[in-house]
């Protein structure tokens, strides 16, 4: 058996929308008390992650260059052992040709040692520079982690002060949203997302929508007061309700959002 859909009047829809707006606006107020703290915490976390990646990259490069130094030291040790070997062989040569050939081998190994020593100096200079940069990075990471800890504690303190009320209101928001049909609720949520102050449903103040300077024509004001259809302000894009409805719902919702 198909579920029976309960139709509600446009006026009931408008009241439900405005009630939801009251709850969501209070939630906005609570979150706004946290100011820029959530963004600051997120930015610090991203910055620290980036710094740690850079530090890890430097550590990897230093490790690679230390391996290169070890390799060059092995080249030097091998060349020295060959030089000792060739010098010993020179003592037992039969002619000048063999002596000169061994001499050239000794010269070649001496050049290998000089080249390896030069490369070791270059690697050592790079390691010193990278270590200096790495130390600066690690100092910055520690400072930012300390700053992040302070900011997180500050944010957690603010959240703990209002968490129970926020949880209560979130439940009420879901409860009141369930009274509104899906299409209308999506429109409300979209208007809220596009609104700088989070307002999607507003009353009229001196003939203009709250927060707007554009007057609503008298004929349209009458239509709004009749509550026969959902009327969207052509300038602000917000759903419009009349002052009487606003006053009635504000009074009714005082008990609902009281915490």
Structure commentary:
This protein has 259 residues and is mostly helical. It contains six helices and four strands, in the order ααααβββαβα. It is 75% helix and 3% strand. A two-stranded parallel sheet has the order 1-4. It has a two-stranded antiparallel ribbon with strand order 2-3. Helix 1 crosses helix 3 (96-177), helix 1 (10-32) packs across helix 6 and helix 2 runs antiparallel to helix 3 (96-177). Residues 1-5 have low confidence and may be disordered.
Topology:
Elements lengths: L9 H23 L4 H54 L5 H82 L4 H12 L7 E2 L1 E2 L2 E2 L8 H9 L12 E2 L2 H15 L2
Parallel strand pairs: 1-4
Antiparallel strand pairs: 2-3
Helix pairs in contact: 1-3, 1-6, 2-3
What structural keywords apply?
mainly alpha; two-stranded parallel sheet; rod-shaped
Distance between the termini: 41 Å
Secondary-structure class: mainly alpha
Number of beta-strand segments: 4
Strands of the largest sheet, in order across it? 1-4
Average pLDDT reading: 92
Q: How many domains is the backbone divided into?
A: 2
Order of helices and strands: HHHHEEEHEH
Helicity, as a percent range: over 70%
Q: If helices are DSSP runs of H or I spanning 4 or more residues, what is the number of helices?
A: 6
């Amino acid at each position: 058996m198909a579920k029976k859909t309960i139709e509600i009047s446009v006026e009931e829809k408008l009241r439900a929308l405005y009630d939801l707006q009251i709850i969501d606006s209070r939630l906005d107020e609570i979150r706004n008390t946290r100011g820029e703290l959530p963004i600051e915490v997120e930015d610090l976390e991203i910055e620290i992650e980036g710094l740690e990646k850079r530090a890890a990259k430097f550590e990897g490069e230093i490790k690679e260059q230390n391996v290169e130094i070890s390799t060059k030291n092995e080249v030097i040790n091998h060349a020295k052992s060959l030089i000792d070997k060739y010098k010993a062989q020179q003592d037992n040569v039969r002619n000048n040709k063999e002596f000169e050939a061994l001499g050239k081998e000794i010269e070649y190994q001496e050049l290998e040692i000089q080249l390896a020593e030069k490369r070791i100096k270059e690697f050592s200079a790079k390691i010193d520079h990278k270590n200096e940069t790495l130390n600066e990075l690690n100092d910055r990471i520690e400072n930012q982690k300390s700053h992040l800890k302070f900011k997180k504690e500050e944010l957690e303190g603010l959240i703990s002060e209002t968490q129970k009320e926020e949880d209560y209101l979130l439940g009420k928001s879901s409860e009141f949203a369930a009274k509104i049909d899906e299409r209308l609720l999506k429109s409300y949520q979209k208007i809220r997302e596009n609104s700088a102050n989070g307002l999607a449903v507003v009353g009229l103040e001196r003939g203009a929508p709250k927060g707007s300077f554009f007057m609503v024509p008298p004929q349209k004001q009458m239509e709004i007061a009749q509550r026969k259809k959902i009327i969207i302000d052509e300038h602000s894009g917000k759903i419009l309700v009349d002052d009487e409805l606003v006053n009635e719902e504000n009074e009714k919702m005082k008990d609902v959002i009281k915490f």
